[in-house]
Amino acid sequence: MTRYARLPVALAVLFATAALAIIAVPGQAQEDSGSESGSQDVFRVGWSQDPKTLNPFVGVNEEEFTIWAINWELLVGFDPEDLTPAPAIAESWDVSEDGKTVTFHLIEDAKWSDGEPITSEDVKWSLETLGEEGLLFAGYTAGVESIKTPDDHTVILTSEEPNARLIGDLFVYVLPEHIWGKVPVDELTGGYQPEVPLVGSGPYIVTEFERSRILKMTPNPEWRGEQPAFDELQFIRYGSADAVERALTLGEVDFIPEVQPATFDRLGEQEGIEVVNAPTYSFTELAFNLCSEENCPDAQFNPAIQDQTMRQAIAYSIDRERNNEIANLGTSFVAHGILPSFYKDFYEVPELDYPYDPELANQMLDDAGWELNADGIREKDGVVASFDLFVRSEAPAEIQYAKLIAEQTEEIGVEFNLQVVSTDKLTELTVRKEDGLPAPEFDTFIWGWGGDPYDPSALLDLVTTSQIGASSDSFYSNPEYDQLMEEQVTLVGEEKLEERKELIKEMVAMVQEDLPYLVLSYDPYLEAYNEDALGNVERLCPAETGEILCQQVSYEPLLTLTPGEGSSGAETVSGVPGGVVAIGALIIAIVAFLVGRARGRRETEPMELPT
Amino acid sequence: MNTRWLIGKVGAAALTLVFVLIFNFFLFRAIGDPTEQLVRLPQSTPEEIAELRAEYGLDKPLLSQFADYVGDTFTGELGISQRTREPVWDEIKRAIPWTLLLVGVGTLIATILGAWMGVKAATKRGTRTDDGLLSFNLFTYAAPEYWIGIILILVFAVAIPIFPAGQQVTPGVEFSSWFAEAADVLDHLVLPVTAMTFLLLGQYFLIMRSSMVEVLTEDFVTVKRATGLPWNRVVSKHAVPNALLPLVTIAAIQFGAVAGGAVTIEALFSWPGLGELSYDAIGDKDFPILQGTFLVFSFAVIFANLIADCLYFALDPRVQAK
Fold this sequence. Notes:
heterodimer, A: alpha+beta, seven-stranded mixed beta sheet, 27 strands, 22% strand, B: 13 helices
């Protein structure tokens, strides 16, 4: 017998086991289709970040909001059509004559998912506790003077001044007091992990949460509205954004709430996959350090940045359209003012919008006496128009954008020196204090902010004087603007909406003129889904221009979406995966081959000597 | 085993561990105050930040923070994760078995394959077999593991979808038995373990090959051959056991280091081990977790070194003689 006589035997074993593997694969696939478990319809969402906690007192991430917004409701929700205030826990509300008292009428027979009734006590406890202690919820109840609960289904809020935010911006989830109220507050704000199933009032409740892996939600048995079409929602967490997108193309998930800008177009070109981009309530801005001597005696910056003409010229020299195409790959939306187009009720393109016009910019600087020096940079009274531009190393698109700005302002003799720093470092530069007073250390930076679903107050508030030392990072101070800010919020109710809009329009115009921020772009939602897996897909929040899931705003889409023709059912796996069988076969074949060869050699080979 | 020798080794290991403990603490304090990032929250007030700092003990002087840290570490209290508010040790405990599985299986396969190929190459030195094995192993040695991982995913999960691209079990399914679940885990293990094997293989092969080449030139091999023993037996019974020594110790030492070095592979394949835990913690600036995983990694390396020393002591009579 020669040494290779055993090879055919080994090959035969390999083929036999491979054949076995092929038989095993379809066997498993049948079970995958879930035909046995019947009509279980599962909606699978893939993401690369998942909730770190279900406790709203300490959670700070968007993914957490996404889940909370399905599990719980606000006192007043948002209409998915136009995002205006809509019934949620409260069925209706009346505003008193003077606008200082709002009476909310709760839905009478509403129940928590554990069967307990939803009462005004739940609302009061949530507003008082979550609204005071919740990291992201504190502040919304700031204007509230008293919360009264004359009966189980009535909540009366009073405030010192009329306050529109009490209706459209009371962004505090109503939690079941009979569960959360039993936990001491310091535990709620500490290590408390709520029990699953997470008792809620929304259409689905969390029934399983394995962090970094999977979160499952099933229909709330006490849900009062129309029954949702899915038997289960699964939020599956993958290790990277690439892995999530791969999972979508492989059909492992039906929907991705957050697609990467770099792959957005490519994903959309794939067959069977649809992509959606919609503006959000967040923007990215170029911020200028406008802190006055009085507010920040120790601030460090180039004084030229506080020259309004300089800022306006810079604004004219930046080509926002082109930069959005390059830096954001066209996935963001070119900004027109501080209020994103998402705020349908309040958005309007401001008159002063700084279209790209470098000639005008040059002219303005010439007229203002800024002359080119020997280096080709403008100078006036010994001050050189050379600024630091800080960007965060974590935000590659913003770095790209900053480079384009530096290129474009070169045309008007203004120099921007790019400083790429960590988020922490930039935070430090903007919030640092000396002797208790803000002492920011920057000329300009690029960063972003996000607001609330309906009411624009949170974003408008970023440039008020009262936020200096807190959220303000432009340190802009304009008493007129502050006055308008206070006034607009007192215009409560629909009949005063037009008046409120006018004031807000004025505020936006002021920001445009004084430019504490040049808002560059409105950040998008980038979503993708498998056409086959979802039916009845609609763009909502707001209608037509919005996105598919109304992330963090409304659970409504989950009630109208239906499983598509190709949607997958719940699976029970009992077979051995084909890949494992194949590997097993390969190993057996190799071992058989080696054993065969070794035996053959031992029997017949002459002694072999190395040369 | 010599007790004095052992005590010396353990003492050195303990000292290293103490140094790591100190270094670990100051490293993360030097990076910055973890509450700083929370300042950017639109609604956060200075009072809340102060409260948060107090909660984490960050308002105390550095030395007293250090004392707390050392005390807590020795009582097994590694702190509370900032993002999940769960005890750090719980999160680490969950991740350890997955890392051990991945690294263990990967090391085992890489050692066996590396040793086998090393012996083949050394006994056929200068032939085409040797050249082929050498180029193959140099290639896998030089190629970054994440690159190999991506190629594996593209080929075996996307182009020919026979293996899952990531995670440790199929998410969201029910299993009819533990056997089906184990098979599913095995299915998910194939690609990451392959990447892990490639990460280690080249190194082990090269060590085995050079050590084998050296042993084959030694006198005892010639003597054995002269006695008329078949060449195969000379190799398998006499040369290989001697040549294995460096490989075994390196593999043992590496085992500790690889536990931490699996970060890229774990992150790429969404494998829920210590590497992915650290990777996520970096993204979330979760310093307590990082501090915890660094401690575990350091411990793993120090412990593996100690084990390697002991192994060497047991296997090599020359060490005992000294």
